[in-house]
Fold:
Amino acid sequence: MATLDEIRNEITQLDADLLALLARRRELSLEVARSKRADQRPIRDTHREQDLLVRLIQQGRALGLSAQYVTQLYHLVIEDSVLTQQDYLQRLANPMQAADETSVAYLGPLGSYSSLAARKYLGRYAQVSEHSCSNFAQVIEAVESGRCQFGVLPIENTSSGSINEVYDLMQQTSLSIVGELTYPIEHCLLVAVPTELAAIDTLYGHPQPLQQCSRYLAQHPDIHHVFCDSSSAAMAKVQALASPNVAAIGSADGGKLFGLTSIASGLANQQENMTRFIVVAREPIEVVPQVPAKTTLIMSTNQYAGALVEVLLVLRNHQINMTKLESRPIQGNPWEEMFYMDVAVNLHSEAMQRALQELYPLTRSLKVLGCYPSEDVAPTEIAPALLP
Ligand SMILES: O=C(O)C(=O)C[C@]1(C(=O)O)C=C[C@@H](O)C=C1
Structure:
């Protein structure tokens, strides 16, 4: 019988082979992207994906691998392939995004959810210079002034809803939205020294995570909450205090940067706790027709009954799918509302251009905040009839 070391050596070698194969697969998907660019075909081909998944499930079964395992694996592989192709085509169309180096501003020092999201979004750049800010307005200012190429701002959370301050800042700025990403949020109670929940009397946290964990925190009414500018500021505070009576609320990954350990996890009201971030830059980008796009609009409607309905009818008549509608008061004009809208369409598509022509006379003000690649790579489901 082989020794444990021998078996592990074989696993190590196998893993290296798997990675080399995945890297080769990625190279091939880039070749596909080049060919699709030449004949203007969309990146996504769900028929091809269905065929591929059905075949792989059959092959997997013959090897003793479950359909669920194979499907999960390949959803990930295909997502990577689609994103790699999108990124390639987008860089060709937007030379400003083709450089190896970039800079980004976000809320909170290293370890904040915004910093983790920024790192994920800019993962393909060889070098990223990071600027941490202590509020959202500073993030906007860092990009407006040209000190940073990108700003990453949270816009909505599945648990606590829209982040109004960011919507309000977007009313004022000349920046464009050039990207989006959704980042999973896992809130934990983080401590600096070994302790237990019953000993905690003070909890440091950013108001957003505290709100997202309101139900859990309501079960511990004796714990006093102290608001901080960011989750990292809360973690730094707890690290500095090094007391068994204090904790911070934040991600386990972020906590590690401050030497903190988690004593309770999964605290959010909603189990699927995700934050959607927008990425802003000084110049708008172009989204190539092969890449699914989203456009964000901000508008104020005329003050008569049914004005918003008319706007929505224009979208419906052009078969434009609205993925988000948010209203915010107009600063300085009590009782008047601004509407933010995300629509799943390219700004330069014929449908959107026609809709805009009809929307201008129906609105008092209308501004396009940006058109950017949609990050959703919805996994292809296999029609039951095709299941092997
Ligand atoms: O075959 C293609 O057209 C590809 O783009 C490659 C690929 C894949 O990774 O297998 C990726 C996206 C498509 O939706 C289908 C398949």
About this structure: The pocket of prephenic acid is lined by residues 29, 32, 43-45, 48-49, 52, 78, 81-82 (CB under 6 Å). Residues 110 and 116 are 8 Å apart (CA to CA). DSSP finds twelve helices and 15 strands in the chain. The first strand starts at residue 101 and ends at 107.
